[in-house]
UniProtKB/TrEMBL annotation:
PANTHER family: POLYPHOSPHATE KINASE. It comes from Muricoprocola aceti. This is Polyphosphate kinase. Belongs to the polyphosphate kinase 1 (PPK1) family. Residues 334-499, 506-677 form the Polyphosphate kinase C-terminal domain. Mg(2+) binds at residues 378, 408. One of its GO terms (molecular function) is polyphosphate kinase activity. Residues 11-116 form the Polyphosphate kinase N-terminal domain. ATP binds at residues 49, 471, 567, 595.
Length: 708
């Protein structure tokens, strides 16, 4: 590899790129062509994204600074330089968030019959009376006011909770006011609907405003000098010494509790908070000015999801899409019979996730099924797959489940499932030491007339029936023997046996997936150098692996056409003369979260398609168990080509990366409107109507049906 491709100038800082991604989500909240309540949802998502970003990424950088870690990232930045850049950019972004909320969304909501009352001072007399009664009956009994004085230290303020800080002084006393705080209870709704008093109008107020108005009732012998909401974000990155953790389950449970008192990374306060009150918070949380955010509006915009969920405003939302049947499974009750006939490609959420659930359910009940093995990374709160696995074990089948306890923010959920599965008689594995198991694979071993047959599901997304309605993912159902053999080897490796000498079709990280991707990219480079047409299309969530990017630069310089569809982080730069002029990067941000990983290599006309669980990131290639699998059925390869082509032609939700690092929407002038996600929804609906005949499960949607 030519070291010329490793220059820091050729790479964008990962965190800087992530902020650009959240700005693309924010641009959806600002898009006047999108239904109003959908814009609320996108604004809420930007806030939720920022919370996790601070708790994990910014916290990790702070840890590096504390540890004196001075190594620079691929863009040549130290941890402190990255923090400085992040805080500057996020302050700018938060200003745009709140100007979008205050100047655009709130007035539009009022025009459409929903009034959000910003402060309790704006209430009418009748509304004040209602709010006070609501406080006395519903809120007061739940609150726990806490004061700080010589005998009571500053209380523990929990991560992400909304609180009201106050300065209070004893009635008739001239002593300096003391600090008090009360947590806004998350068990009560943040949005309180109150009588409007205006025809055709509904009115809501925030719970913190209801509490603030009545805060004097919590401190009866005191005068409340001032009261303002505030919120903190703590370091929530788990540090687990697996080598020293005798029981990973107990160690993670212990670490989860520590999230509540990790270092404070960000402090949000209401703009206009009195300086003495802010000074106390700043001192107690040991936080610098650049990590304090003065908010002109309600703290924690994730409350907008509650507004989105209000009934009566359906005309201001996108019509809910119902996932459609899978054509190959529409006319059969027996999923194993269907898989024996052909490999089956699944495309969620356009096609329903039910076949994946039914695959496990049918296996659990089928007397001929001997064993079920599955990896679980994130599952839903009431998972039908978990229930089916438990039933299978109770039916006497061999059930092995790898539950990834280290799936970030799903640790508690997964601990509960792991214990339940063990009780049902499943063999539960907690993964490999030092590695997260991120691969999505299910193996069903079945006794049939001609011997043992293995059925396999491989996917790009989690076994989560809830997020499968929101995330775009792909899956493959197959009983191809080479993949069945590899699937058995995967589970043997995960449960503790050594890996086999040979693999047939699957490529695994961290074993040799990195090498496999390198080999595929370098093969295209060689084809280009030999004067042959060379082409790579790669769709993923994030691209930040320096070695992979360097290989892409080398391929581009050799003349390989490279089209990337990267939803989130992209550390690659386009348009570098002689380096990346043959590379384009598309980012689709739409109603569904783009989550699939699909890879295409032209291979001198012998085209190859792959899908998998891994992005092109160091953590996926080096620190996780990931699986890449080929799609070899010609009909399914045509289908993947179609999916990638429609995404590349999207001119509604697609943003194109520019050489200066900015992203711009496609210029649609003179082009027919094409929104990939809408296209696939309509295509799935049309396919579900077709009779089952050979060659009749491909549909091309007439362009005019998708035009404005």
């Amino acid at each position: 590899m030519n070291t010329e491709y490793y220059k820091p100038d050729y790479y964008r800082n990962r965190e800087d790129s992530w902020i650009s991604f959240d700005e693309r989500v924010l641009s959806e909240a600002r898009d006047k062509n999108i239904p109003l309540f959908e814009r609320l949802k996108f604004l809420s998502i930007t806030a939720s994204n920022l919370d996790e970003f601070f708790m994990i990424r910014v916290a990790s950088l702070k840890d590096m600074v504390h540890a004196g870690y001075t190594k620079k990232d691929i863009a040549g930045m130290t941890a402190q330089e990255q923090i400085d850049l992040i805080l500057k950019r996020v302050h700018d972004m938060v200003n745009v968030q709140y100007s979008t909320y205050e100047r655009s969304l709130v007035p539009l909501l009022k025009q459409n019959g929903l009034e959000i009352i910003a402060t309790h001072e704006e209430l009418s007399e009748a509304q004040k009376e209602y709010v006070d009664r609501y406080f006395d009956e519903n809120v007061y009994p739940v609150l726990t006011p806490m004061a700080m004085d010589s005998s009571r230290p500053f209380p523990l303020i929990r991560n992400k909770t909304l609180n009201i800080g106050a300065l209070i002084s004893k009635k008739g006393s001239e002593e300096e006011p003391q600090f008090a705080t009360v947590q806004v209870p998350s068990v009560l709704t943040r949005i309180v609907e109150i009588p409007s008093g205006k025809d055709g109008m509904r009115s809501v107020i925030h719970l913190e405003q209801v509490i603030e108005r009545n805060i004097g009732k919590l401190f009866l012998n005191y005068d409340v000098v001032c009261a303002h909401p505030y919120r903190i974000m703590r370091n929530a990155d788990l540090t687990i010494e697996e080598d020293e953790a005798a029981d990973l389950l107990k160690e993670i449970q212990k670490q989860l509790k520590k999230r509540q008192w990790g270092e404070v990374i960000r402090l949000e306060v209401e703009e206009g908070m009195e300086k003495p009150l802010l000074k106390i918070l700043k001192k107690e949380f040991d936080i610098k000015n650049d990590a304090i955010f003065l908010i002109n509006g309600p703290l924690d915009l994730t409350f907008l999801m509650k507004i989105y969920g209000m009934e009566g405003f359906e005309k201001l939302k996108e019509k809910k899409y119902i996932p459609q049947p899978v054509p190959a499974l529409m006319h059969t009750e027996d999923i194993f019979e269907a898989i024996r006939k052909q490999d089956i490609l699944l495309h969620h959420p356009y096609m329903t996730f039910d076949p994946v659930v039914n695959f496990v359910k049918q296996a659990a009940k089928d007397p001929d099924v001997l064993a079920i093995k599955q990896t679980l990374y994130r599952v839903s709160g009431n998972s039908p797959i978990i229930a089916a696995l438990a039933q299978a074990a109770e039916n006497g089948k061999q059930v092995s489940v790898l539950v990834e306890l280290k799936a970030r923010f799903d640790e508690e959920n997964n601990i509960v499932w792991a214990k339940m599965l063990e009780k049902a008689g499943c063999h539960v594995i907690y993964g490999l030491l030092g590695l997260k198991t991120h691969s999505k694979i299910t193996l069903v071993v079945r006794r049939e007339a001609d011997g043992i047959r293995r059925y396999v599901h491989l996917g790009t997304g989690n076994y989560n029936d809830s997020t499968a309605k929101l995330y775009t993912d792909c899956g493959l159902l197959t009983c191809a023997e080479p993949i069945g053999e590899d699937a058995t080897a995967v589970f043997n490796m995960l449960s503790g046996y050594s890996e086999p000498k040979n693999w047939n079709k699957l490529s695994l990280a961290p074993l040799w997936l990195r090498d496999r991707f390198a080999e595929l990219i370098q093969r295209e480079t060689e084809h280009a150098r030999n004067g042959e047409e060379a082409h790579i299309i790669a769709k993923m969530n994030s691209l930040c692996d320096r070695d992979i990017i360097a290989l892409l630069y080398e391929a581009s310089a050799a003349g390989v056409k490279i089209e990337l569809i990267v939803r989130g982080i992209c550390c690659l730069k386009t348009g570098i003369p002689g380096i990346s002029e043959n590379i384009t990067v598309h980012s689709i941000v739409g109603n569904f979260l783009e989550h699939a990983r699909i890879f295409y290599f032209r291979n001198n006309g012998m085209e190859e398609y792959y899908m998998g669980s891994a992005d092109w990131m160091p953590r996926n290639l080096d620190k996780r168990v990931e699986i890449l699998f080929p799609v070899e059925d010609e009909k399914l390869k045509t289908e993947l080509e179609h999916i990638l082509q429609i995404q590349l032609e999207d001119n509604v939700k697609s943003h194109i990366l520019q050489p200066d690092g900015s992203y711009v929407k496609v210029n649609r002038r003179g082009k027919k409107r094409l929104c990939a996600q809408e296209y696939f929804c309509q295509e799935a609906v049309e396919r579900a109507k077709l009779p089952k005949e050979p060659g009749k499960d491909r549909v091309f949607i007439p362009e005019e049906s998708l035009t404005e």
